[in-house]
Amino acid sequence: MPTTDPIADPTASTPASPADTPTTSDPITPTDTATLEVARGSRVAASAERLEDIRTRPLERMDPGSPSAFRDESVFAKFERLRREDPVHYTPAEHTRMGAYWSLTTWEHIMAADTDPETFSADAGIVMRPVDDGSGASLAEAYEDPSERAAAQSQQSAQPQQNAQPFQIQSLLSMDPPEHDLHRQIVAPGVAPTRLTDLEPLIRRRAQKILDGLPVGEEFDWVDLVSKELTAMTLATLLNFPQEHRRRLTDWSDAVTAIGGPGQAIETPEERVAAMGEFFATLMGVLESRRGEEPALDFASLLAHSPHTGEFTKAQLFGDLVVLLVGGNDTTRNTITGSLYALSRWPEQFAKLRSGEAKIPSMVSETIRWQTPLTHMMRVATKDTELGGKTIRRGDRVALWYVSGNRDTAVIEDPDEFIIDRKNPRRHISFGFGIHRCLGNRLAELQLRIIWEEILVRFPEIHVVEEPVRTFDNFVRGYESMRVLIPRRNAPAGKRTAERSAPEAGSPAAAATSGAGAR
Predict the structure, then answer these.
(1) pLDDT at residue 75, as a whole number
(2) Is the pTM of this model over 0.90?
(3) 3-state class of 167 per DSSP?
(4) How far apart are CA 313 and CA 300, in angstroms?
(5) Angle between helices 441-458 and 193-212 (to 10 degrees)
(6) What is the pLDDT of residues 430-471, one digit of tens each?
(7) Euclidean distance between CA atoms 198 and 122, whole angstroms
(8) Which three-class secondary structure state does DSSP give residue 211?
(9) Which Pfam families match (predicted)?
(10) 390 φ/ψ angles, rounded to the nearest 5 degrees
(11) Residue 514 class from Cβ within 10 Å (0-12 exposed, 13-18 middle, 19+ buried)?
(12) Average pLDDT taken over every residue of the chain
């Protein structure tokens, strides 16, 4: 019988360590004190017993989707073993809280599935989440009228589904052609090359203002003052959302992606539904206002003025808005943090960047590979099929682990190393492949390039003073916070002055500056 797992029961205490009691899934934190680093330069160390358990655990009990393994980086030991011993791996329901699923862990197999939407459909949802927790809460409550919801529940009760995933959404990412193509075409102009050319000066001005407002000589949270701030500003522009309320977008994005539990961004399913209901109602108001204005290239206007949007169901419109929200937030935000973190772990690479020996675009691509901000996408088999010598049955759920494919030694040399001058740094699968390739990948790269161009102009060094707090999640590989210290600024050059620009009143940087020295 499976032992209690805090993922499914947030009130449960942490189980015994693997050496004491065999468990079917990993505890939130290891309970022993012996440690062993799992990646060079990391101060986060999985327990020695935890790593030994990964090396010796029967393969059928291996659960790559356990969120705790992403927080302490022991997940890379799992994927290394699976790529070597069982690259197409099945985790049965009795050994996971995520419902039974297959894992594709090699570059070859991930590419094969990602480019074959006829066999591996996105229609059943793209994110691995714990199965129904018994609360009855569903994201449908965020957009459906109570009467509509009652009717839907009646239909669902007549046709129960195995391994129900209560927080899946319909969206352009979880659709197959031809519906997928229509939904993607509507919003694609919002991140087209000409649009990015127009956005670049605005993003640069904002990056300059953010960096000029950072405290010097005092510790601060890089995630809050830099990563969240720049991405929230850009996301608000993309959605035509008021800049003064931009952090609501960040909070809503966290609400939809977080695995709920005590101390998390969302603690209960009901909190998630409430947050998403607020998001949907607010964005529908934005869309309605855009219908009375001239067409423009922000996502709200593109959706409002499309002749097809009126044919979308509420579920589809809600899903498209959520995907634009999360896609515009998580990739850039966590890679901005991940880039500084990785450079601090590999100081010789930071030296290459400062000296100009390695170029910023190359570093950006390497960071996106090394970080892999979204770890996986889920698919469902539409028919019986064979992959890697295994038979995947129709209806089986399949996880495409991009985070593992990006560490595949068959394709990438020294993949666990952070090397910013690789010969082909854009060779990664962080953005996926095929029809579902990330819509905003060029915008993410643009923001990262700009922020680092402006960082190098201003700061000769930035110190990460504490190990970052990682997100407890198996989908978003991100950071909750990361304390840093900027000792000094570069001397003024050209038209730049030594006087620091005053941060905007009410901004996080202003608050951090006013509280300098309080910590």
Answers:
(1) 93
(2) no
(3) coil
(4) 17
(5) 30
(6) 998 876 677 778 999 999 999 999 999 999 999 999 999 998
(7) 33
(8) helix
(9) p450
(10) -110, 150
(11) exposed
(12) 80
Q: Return the pLDDT at 37.
A: 45
- pLDDT, residue 318, reads 79
Q: What is d(CA 401, CA 404) in angstroms, rounded to the nearest whole number?
A: 5
- Encoded tokens for 137: 């809460």
CA-wise closest residue to 412 among 426, 401, 433, 431: 426
Nearest to 172 by CA among 308, 373, 301: 308
Query: In angstroms, rounded to a whole number, what is the distance separating the alpha carbons of residues 383 and 328?
Result: 33
DSSP string of 212-265, one letter each residue: HTS-SSS-EEHIIIIIHHHHHHHHHHHHT--GGGHHHHHHHHHHHHPPP-TTSS
Per the DSSP assignment, residues forming a β-bridge with 387 are 390
CA 265 vs CA 58, 253, 271, 275, 409: distances in Å: 34, 10, 9, 11, 35
Burial of 499 (0-12, 13-18, 19+ CB in 10 A): exposed
For residue 77, which phi and psi values (nearest 5 degrees)?
Answer: -70, -35
Sole residue written with tokens 């998630």: 272
Closest to 343 in 3D by CA, of 461, 490, 213: 461
Q: How far apart are CA 420 and CA 195, in angstroms?
A: 28
Q: Token match 């449960």: residue? A: 12
Q: How far apart are CA 124 and CA 378, in angstroms?
A: 8
Length of the chain: 519
Question: Which two tokens mark 379?
Answer: 């698919």
C-alpha angle with apex 402: 397 to 408, nearest 5 degrees? Answer: 120
Beta-carbon contacts of 168 under 8 Å, excluding residues fewer than 6 positions away, are: 124, 125, 126, 127, 129, 139, 174
- Give the closest residue to 300 by CA, choosing from 313, 284, 322, 316: 284
User: Tokens in use for 66?
Assistant: 């356990």
Are 360 and 392 in contact by the 8 Å Cβ rule? The answer is no
Distances (CA, A) of 76 to 25, 110, 387, 401, 507: 16, 17, 22, 11, 37
List own/partner pairs for 206-209 with CB under 8 A and 24 or more apart. Answer: 206/230, 206/233, 206/234, 207/447, 207/450, 207/451, 207/454, 208/454, 208/501, 209/501, 209/503, 209/504
Contacts 24+ apart (CB under 8 A), 14-18: 17/47, 17/49, 17/50, 18/49, 18/50, 18/52, 18/53, 18/57
Query: How far is the C-alpha of 439 from the C-alpha of 306, rounded, in Å?
Result: 18
List the structure tokens of 42: 């990391």
Q: What mean pLDDT comes out for the span 260-278? A: 81
